[in-house]
């Protein structure tokens, strides 16, 4: 759909469950997970522009993973030529990479632990993920080829859901080392860990603004899940959803002028948008009787 909620198009069009979509960096392709062939696999399609009121259709569908197991959470490399994802095989999660034609599939982690949720650095040279290979969930970093796998955290708590800052000099992650989940930030070598949220609620699912100056996250510090925004150093934490419903999984638009999140304030899960440049207005974008989740923004291309 458009950023204002118009022109909502069904791209995958089947009775299966299609989830975790992500646009390629140039906006011309879409990768997602689907169970249309039995278990979950990673699929890619090309977005074909054909004008008029309906602007896109999905063509040239390819099953990229095409293996026994459950393949989830695909992530494009910054070049758009490579995709990483997690795969559950024989009760063990590993991180795989594959190119956009389904070739050169490789197990990057090859450990006895659960290796999950890979994220590329902005320059495409490193991947950050979390793993319990040492007995509990910790943050790891490796090269894009799977080399030099290094543990960045070391404690008995859960350290999960890492991602790089846009400038590639910081990593944010979640940890419950103080009893509840907080958002932490650290250097790429694991040094200088700072608790950014530091309150009694659970603070989770953090995401950077494109310029790296702001972070959005969800928190239940006020009794229900809300979407908050703060500065990179943790200052000026503001509740931007501010509703007594469930508001969760906020992300910035690619221009940094909007934050979208999932809310059930109208009785079912819908996608809402918070316009930073338009008097901070909140708008329901999807408006239907289904459950709308897994938000991603497209980079515009010619």
UniProtKB/TrEMBL annotation:
Annotated InterPro entries: 6-blade_b-propeller_TolB-like, WD40
Stored Pfam families: PD40 (PF07676)
Family in the record: Belongs to the TolB family.
PANTHER family listed in its UniProt record: PROTEIN TOLB, PROTEIN TOLB HOMOLOG
Name of the featured protein: DUF5050 domain-containing protein
Organism: marine metagenome
């Amino acid at each position: 759909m458009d950023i204002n909620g118009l022109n909502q198009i069904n791209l995958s069009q089947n009775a299966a469950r299609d989830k975790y979509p992500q646009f390629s960096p140039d906006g011309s392709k879409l990768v997602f997970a689907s169970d249309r062939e039995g278990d979950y696999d990673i699929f890619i399609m090309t977005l074909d522009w054909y004008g008029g009121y309906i602007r896109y259709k999905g063509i040239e569908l390819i099953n990229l993973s095409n293996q026994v197991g459950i393949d989830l959470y695909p992530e494009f490399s910054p070049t758009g030529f490579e995709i990483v994802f997690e795969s559950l095989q024989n009760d063990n999660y590993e991180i795989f990479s594959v190119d956009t034609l389904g070739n050169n599939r490789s197990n990057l982690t090859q450990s006895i632990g659960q290796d999950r949720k890979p994220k590329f650095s902005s320059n495409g040279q490193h991947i950050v993920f979390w793993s319990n290979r040492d007995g509990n969930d910790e943050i790891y970093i490796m090269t894009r080829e799977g080399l030099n796998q290094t543990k960045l955290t070391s404690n008995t708590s859960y350290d999960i859901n890492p991602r790089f800052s846009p400038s590639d000099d910081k990593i944010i992650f979640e940890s419950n080392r103080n009893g509840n989940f907080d958002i932490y930030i650290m250097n790429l070598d694991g040094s200088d860990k700072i608790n950014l949220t530091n309150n009694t609620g659970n603070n989770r699912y953090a995401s950077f603004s494109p310029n790296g100056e702001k972070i959005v996250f969800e928190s239940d510090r006020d009794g229900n899940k809300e979407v908050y925004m703060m500065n990179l150093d943790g200052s000026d934490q503001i509740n931007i959803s501010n509703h007594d419903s469930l508001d969760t999984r906020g992300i910035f638009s690619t221009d940094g002028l909007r934050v979208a999140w999932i809310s059930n304030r109208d009785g079912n899960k819908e996608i809402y948008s918070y316009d930073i440049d338009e008097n901070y207005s909140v708008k329901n974008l999807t408006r239907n009787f289904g459950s709308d989740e897994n938000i991603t923004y497209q980079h515009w291309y010619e």
